[in-house]
Amino acid sequence: MPVGSCRIAPLSTVLDQEAWRQQKNESLSSTTTLATQRVAYVTLLHSSEDYVCGAIALAQSIRQSGSRHDMILLHDHSITNRFCIGLSLAGWKLRLVERIRSPFSVKDSYNEWNYSKLRVWQVTDYDKLVFIDADFIIAKNVDYLFSYPQLSAAGNSRVLFNSGVMVMHLHNII
After folding, report:
1. pLDDT at position 111, please?
2. CA trace torsion 8, 120, 138, 156 (10° rounding)
3. Domain for residue 129, yes or no?
4. Rounded CA gap, 145 and 65, in Å?
5. DSSP string of 21-63?
6. Based on the structure, what is the number of domains in the chain?
7. Per-residue pLDDT, 165
8. What is the chain's mean pLDDT, rounded?
9. Does the keyword Manganese apply (predicted)?
10. Which backbone phi and psi does 113 adopt, to 5 degrees?
């Protein structure tokens, strides 16, 4: 997105607040297992504000897909209060985290702080999380991902997986 193109749509234009509250209070899912679990979408912003617009677009796409699950955004001190307010207005529940440097990265490289994704494991007040990178857009409802097993992700090779979208069951992992 070009600099300055990020505009926050008022919540009322995305979804009527009262209708959202009523739908959220309805059953989380038709499956008994999901209805008894506390689940949320989560993303992470660290090192710069470059992906703030993407995180806002992600939040709006999750809501427009029909999902009513909680949305948590982990962020470090590089995200200023001005942007935190916008992210909160977009529907994210914000949590401040310390970033983690990858010991294998080059200083100032794009992946220098990618180990910060490990902070997702500290979100222990939920049973299951669907992590989505802040540069994704949800085209249709993906709430079914909450029914996936303990740790699920797309494979990149026989030994690596893509961490852009992950399902994480935070309890009962051996």
Report:
1. 80
2. 140
3. yes
4. 14
5. HHHHHS-S-SSHHHHHS-EEEEEEE-S-STTHHHHHHHHHHHH
6. 1
7. 85
8. 80
9. yes
10. -110, 20
